[in-house]
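Progress report, Aim 2. The chain analyzed during this reporting quarter is listed below.
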Amino acid sequence: MRRALTLLHRWLGIAGNLLFVVWFASALVMMYARMPALDPGDRLNRLPPLDLDAMRVGPARAAGAAGLDAEDLSEVRVRLGMAGDRPVYRFLTARGWTAVYADTGSPLLQVSEGQALAIASSYQAGGAPPAATPPIPLAYDGYLTRPDQWSLQIRSLLPLHQVRTGNEVLYVSDRTAEVVMATTPGSRFWGTAGAVFHWLYFTPLRTHSTFWYQLIVWTASLGCLLTLSGLAIGVLRLRRKRSPYRGMMRWHHYSGLAFGATAFTWVLSGALSMDPFGWQAGRTTSPTRQAAVAGGAVPLQQLELDSIRTAAGSISESFPPREIELLQFAGEPLVLAYRAPLGGRSYGGSYASGPLGFLSAVQPFEHRLVSLEDGTPRRFGQPELLAAAAAAMPGSSVVDVAELREYDAYYEDRRYRRRALPVLRVRFGDPAGTWLYLDPALGRIVHSENRRSRLDRWLYRGLHRLDFPGFYHRRPLWDVVVIVLLLGGLFSAGSSLAPATKRLRRTPQRLAARLRRQEG
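Predicted structure tokens for the chain:
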């Protein structure tokens, strides 16, 4: 058994220890930097002012021009914003995004090169009129019909126009006529050093989703065998509490005993992050439940331009909306608008990116929700939310109800703390043990859980991020502990590289010598 474990660990280590080195090193980067993404506050603050006076077409006519049928409209999301200097409806359905101009009712079929440059210029100017700011040199950089490294996560918005301005590259979607991604040399460097290497997120692999998924799951599974066999061998080979090895292998032995268990939990939870058992499905609120809370689809046929302008005018008393969303709660049509804070990273939360990110302050979005019926502000009380929750879970009894003013172990935003609070948590007695979290400010289910997803929370986020109550938010203590564990794992994996190289060099020589002896 010891011989079999030794051979298993040896050859799995030779095959996979370099990957472990990459995983540990990239995890250090990912503590403070992720894949490039468009900051939601920057996106909102840089939108052109919303020109509702230019609207001539109602949402129902625009949906018809987009070719949306009754099935599409049953789960549609509607945004109203600007595409350059023209108002535009943006519809999100199961088929993806579709845009229709609100001044003429014509579908946005394709963004031209000139339009892409104009949209990028408006973004760079912060939504101000071109004459108000000095011209910014822009260069059209290409048209993507297939994702590149930085647009893999926004493939649903393809095709994309690339526009270069200085060191920044902007991506303008052909589907929505807006900037949907911005990258810089710094964000691309840290994105590669962190997420790309850690997730094996290389474009040729990631574009083949099934192959990439299987590669990650099976590689992580073999990594579990590597770490477990290493721990077993490490314990069995101890002699009077001392290692029998010499040189670098002795350091590998001791560091493996010290950090092998943590490495195993990280690799195991990394495999679980791919959701091989479908446990995370409990967190995704089904369209049926969302529709039950809303009281059906947004009644576009009943929405008049005058009522939309009136509602937007009510929001303008607090701040000028740059974009509005049409939605409904319990059959009541509503208009929602956000205003992002000026300056800084709007979603930065308590733990923004950067070595000292844990010192940053929370900067939440301001929002206004008003009724389309009379333009009055709306917020929903507990009786309304309970009725909506019951509609979403017909036939299920309510176990308990709690208003959360702080995050619990399952509804949280550990990195940016931008999720809505307070929320109403309603726990049901159905076989799946469903919990629904409803936002009284928006009248939406913002999160859901079931028994399997709650177990997954501890097996994945608990083990992978050391996300345990009372510890995760104790910064910089959490940072110090995780960095020490990662450096220990990095040293343990790296200390085997030189012995592995020597063995690979010796193995062919030994095989050749054995063949010569057999022939002789």
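The CA atoms of residues 436 and 448 lie 5 Å apart. Residues 344-362 have pLDDT under 50 and may be disordered. These observations will guide the mutagenesis work planned for the next reporting period.
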